[in-house]
Amino acid sequence: MMVIVLQVLLALFACARLVAGVAKYVRKERAQSLFKLVASVLIWGAIAVFALFPQWARALSQRAGFGENLNTLIFVGFVVVFAILFKLLAIIERLERSISEIVRKEALQLIVDARAAGTSGTRPPDIRLPD
Amino acid sequence: MDHDRVFVVMPAFNEAPAIEAAIQEVAASGYRRIIVVDDGSDDDTYERARAMGGVIALRHMLNRGKGAAVKTGIEAAKMLGAAAVVTIDADGQHNPAAIAGMLALIDQGYDVVLGSRLKNPKGMPFHKVAANLAGNGVTWMLYGLWVTDSQSGLRAYSKRAVDLIDARTDRYEYDTEVIREIKRHRLKFVEVPIDVRYTAYSMSKRHKMNLVNGVKILIKLLISGS
Questions:
Q1: In this predicted complex, what is the ipTM?
Q2: What whole-number distance in Å separates Cα of residue A17 and Cα of residue B48?
Q3: What CA–CA distance (Å, rounded) separates B81 from A114?
Q4: Contact A110 B170 (CB under 8 A)
Q5: A44 assigned to some structural domain
Q6: Minimum-distance CB partner of B80 among A89, A96, A130
Q7: How many CB atoms lie within 10 A of CB A58?
Q8: Predicted confidence band at B66 (pLDDT cuts at 50, 70, 90)?
Q9: Is A110 on the interface with B (CB under 8 A)?
Q10: Amino acid A107: pLDDT
């Protein structure tokens, strides 16, 4: 009886997280991307389903050729970790590009300033423009 | 080509011992429009470049990598009305005497002229030849275009090429991305053999290309969705 209560509670919690994730996406919150939505639906959906029907996990593992549930869990864990790692690297790369754009803009500002000052006769000392 | 509309871009990072000689050599070859982009050096590279007459010295407040510095230089050249852009390393390893021939090819209608060390590998250390071949192989696998020196820093671009090329990465992978852009925009390109002077100074630099950087480049090229 206790186990069933825990199963239902876990499934309810997973459903609540899933609904919250979908609601965030529907409200177009900036922090919620399509990638995050799909990840939440898959992860929390799987938790909800396997909490209520744990025997499905075993059947699925055997059908997929993993044998035991733990093997499946470890395999899926690796896949999820690599997906997250790849996503993080892509985010870092995007941030790096943004930083470079800011740095470039600041460096080129010298040319913008020098051209503006050139027309008024006073050039900033940091740059020498061609005649 | 009118030299007054040719801009020579020199990305520089901690090149204080060599920058003045490198600039003087380019200027002595007849090119007055020299843009030095100091990529957040710790030494006085920027001050030395700035002190040289006629040089347009720009500075990145943070080190962003060779590709980012080249991009800044090319953007500056575009703002100043460049008809052609030449990129050359700031450590003096490239001989600016090659620029005239490269620009002649641009005049003949080529969009990009790639200086190739492997077309003239005399004096090139074996490990550099091997690394270069590996880089060329990766470039070919990723983009389907075979070039003999995918990492060369001595290149000339027509105005059309600088307007079209949109490389996104910041570090040494930039050079490889340019090859992708050549293929993507079907730019007319040619490779020419170039002289490279491997001095004790240029070989001692720790941030130059090596195997670890090569692996990093591969990962970044894959992540960048190139």
A1: 0.85
A2: 59
A3: 15
A4: no
A5: yes
A6: A130
A7: 15
A8: very high
A9: yes
A10: 96
Q: Tell me the longest C-alpha to C-alpha distance in chain A.
A: 88
Mean pLDDT within A72-98: 85
Residue with tokens 């200086």: B115
Say if the Cβ atoms of B62 and A89 lie within 8 Å: no
Query: How many pairs of residues across A and B have Cβ atoms under 8 Å apart?
Result: 69
pLDDT tens profile B10-51: 999 999 999 999 999 999 999 999 999 999 999 999 999 999
- Residues in chain A, overall count: 131
Domain residue ranges of chain B, discontinuous segments joined by +: 3-223
Q: Report the percent of chain B where pLDDT is more than 90.
A: 64
Chain segment B78-119, per-residue pLDDT in tens: 999 999 999 999 999 999 999 999 999 999 999 999 999 888
Q: Is B155 on the interface with A (CB under 8 A)?
A: no
Tell me whether residues B50 and A126 touch, CB distance under 8 A: yes
Q: Where are the beta strands (DSSP E) in chain B?
A: 6-12, 34-39, 55-60, 84-87, 112-116, 155-158, 189-193
Fold of B3-223: Spore Coat Polysaccharide Biosynthesis Protein SpsA; Chain A (3.90.550)
Please check whether residue A111 lies inside any domain of the structure: no
Question: Which of B47, B48, B52, B58 is the best mutation test for A, with the most CBs of A within 10 A?
Answer: B58
Instruction: Give the pLDDT band (50/70/90) at residue A70.
Output: confident
Number of domains in chain A: 1
A99 part of a folded domain:
no
